[in-house]
Design goal:
heterodimer; A: mainly alpha; MetI-like fold; B: alpha/beta; Rossmann fold; six-stranded mixed sheet; four-stranded antiparallel sheet; 7 helices; about 35% helix; globular; binds adenosine-5'-diphosphate; binds magnesium ion
């Protein structure tokens, strides 16, 4: 067991050391070129300064990460809970496929972020407008992929199910849901990547807390070092969400993951 | 013997952009209970289409089909079908896939332990129960699919190129398994194939289907004893059957 883990670690290092070396070079170059080109503090800082300066502002950064994280997760979870059932309903209802589906496809063309100022003006500076904007950003990729997922059962599996005489509900539970899961996760992962973008932009537009608000304020105060700290935490938030989704995917459809590797 | 399958003036055409396309027929045929019948023809001649009409999964454009004395009007659950493309689901093991057939039919897998075991045994798949489909070779997948199609012990079996996509050696092997299963329970089998050798080795009767649109204009009764193993291929009669069928397809211009 231990030997196996060690072996995997060694292989991982031998496969990815170049990537790490590249990252290291990038940051070293950044560190040196600030002095070399005499870049002023209010334009850009060295990576080392960014770390030490932001450590001083850590409590505020943590609190804002929590707030932005809450907005992101709430919008994302509500989007999943609504988009999947709506996707299923559209797949199986002829009426919805002719009405709601084209409507959703047209709304998908609209950049959802453009609604952000309106929602802020309607609902104020609080949590709700941000959650709604994150929801809008996440909802469409999930619902469109769910429609694709539930609508593309292979002809063989469809016929196989029919010939058994099983009820539609049984076929749905035993065949349709598991076949649809991989494609559903494609949409959910795409949404996870974009969720933090939605939250940050919503906060840029109208907010008195959160990482988006923070980045905007410190930039105004000519503190690019702190802006970078905010950007870093925002990235971490996005990665965390994506990581959780990937983990859940692994739990729910291990057969799909292992197939992909092979 | 009773007639299990009756096909009367059945044809099928599909609507396409270039107008209606006749995919099969019209054709008549009678298949008796316990026979092993092959539908032999080049690809695209409508073999799968005919099989799907027998199963009630495609509606004939004209004509009537009877199965066990009742007209085929909707998907029939009193038969077993092995489809041309795999119906093994990737999220279940070999055993789970076999059980899926039972679960969908509202049967309890626990009551079929012995049947599952003996079926897996008869296709040399013992010990593979816990494997996932993607961990199996093409031949093993085909064997697992065969078990999945047979586990509810249907008296009528429709097999669409059950040994397609396999290498020659594996084919030979599974042919033997399939023949043993048939001799054991004597279900009525309708097998689609485009291998002349396979059709002759397995069948009591071979229907030759002409190229597009497929029509049945020749029937060859194969009068040789079972079991027909590798040695049968040296039999002069076997060689004669091959030559006869060969010349028919040569006449169609497909060989
Ligand atoms: N759903 C369909 N729509 C249009 N054409 C079809 C459809 N299904 C089959 N065909 C056509 O019917 C013909 C016979 O198909 P098929 O029965 O699959 O042949 P085979 O199994 O003998 O290879 C082919 O030319 C195929 O393109
Ligand atoms: Mg076919």
């Amino acid at each position: 067991m231990k030997g196996k883990v060690l072996k995997r670690l060694v292989r991982w290092i031998s496969e990815s050391w170049m990537m790490f070396a590249f990252f290291a070079c990038f940051f070293l170059l950044w560190e040196w070129s600030i002095d070399w080109f005499e870049v002023p503090q209010y334009i850009l800082n060295k990576p080392s300064e960014i770390i030490t300066n932001s450590a001083a502002d850590l409590p505020r950064l943590m609190q804002y990460t929590y707030i932005t994280g809450l907005e992101t997760v709430l919008g994302f979870v509500v989007a999943i809970c609504l988009a999947i059932p709506i996707g299923v309903a559209i797949t199986f209802s002829n009426i919805l496929r002719r009405t709601l589906y084209p409507f959703l496809v047209s709304v998908e063309m609209v950049p959802k972020i453009a609604f952000a100022p309106l929602f802020i003006s309607w609902l104020g500076f609080g949590l709700l407008p941000k959650v709604i904007i994150v929801f809008l950003v996440c909802f469409f990729p999930i619902v469109l992929n769910a429609i694709l997922a539930f609508g593309s059962l292979s002809q063989e599996l469809d016929r196989f199910s029919q010939i058994t005489g099983a009820s539609q509900i049984k076929i749905f539970l035993k065949i349709r849901i598991p076949s649809a899961l991989p494609q559903c996760f494609v949409g959910i992962k795409y949404a996870a990547i974009n969720a933090t973008v939605g939250a940050a932009i919503a906060e840029f537009i109208g907010s008195d807390q959160g990482l988006g608000f923070y980045i905007q304020i410190v930039t105004g105060n000519m503190r690019p070092d702190l802006a970078f700290a905010g950007i870093f935490l925002l990235t971490l938030l996005g990665l965390g969400l994506f990581g959780i989704v990937t983990f859940v995917e692994r739990l729910m459809i291990p057969w799909h993951i292992s197939q992909r590797r092979g | 013997m009773n007639t299990t399958i009756q096909i009367q003036g059945v044809s099928k055409s599909f609507e396409t952009d270039e107008g209606p396309l006749v995919a099969f027929g019209p054709a008549d045929l009678d298949i008796k209970q316990g026979e092993f019948v092959s539908l032999l023809g080049p690809s695209g001649c409508g073999k799968s289409t005919l099989l799907m009409m027998l199963a009630g999964l495609e509606e004939p454009s004209s004509g009537k089909i009877f199965l066990n004395q009742t007209p085929v009007q909707s998907p029939r659950n009193d038969i077993g079908v092995m489809f041309q493309e795999s119906t093994l689901v990737p999220w279940r093991t070999v055993l789970g896939n076999i059980e899926l057939q039972l679960e969908l039919r509202g049967k309890r897998p626990e009551n079929f332990r012995e049947q599952i075991d003996s079926l897996l045994n008869s296709v040399s798949m013992k010990g593979m129960e816990k494997r996932m489909p993607h961990e199996l070779s093409g031949g093993m997948q085909q064997r697992a699919a065969l078990c999945q199609a047979l586990i509810h012990q249907p008296q009528t079996l429709l097999l669409d190129e059950p040994l397609g996509k396999l290498d020659a050696m594996t084919r030979e092997n599974i042919r033997g398994d399939l023949q043993r299963l048939w001799l054991d329970k004597k279900p009525t089998v309708v097998m689609v194939t485009h291998s002349i050798e396979e059709a002759v080795q397995m069948s009591t009767r071979v229907y030759l289907i002409s190229p597009r649109p497929g029509k049945i204009d020749k029937v060859v009764d194969i009068e040789m004893d079972y079991p027909r193993n590798l040695a049968v291929k040296q039999n002069p009669r076997f060689i004669q059957y091959l030559a006869d069928i060969h010349s028919v397809f040569h006449g169609y211009g497909v060989l």
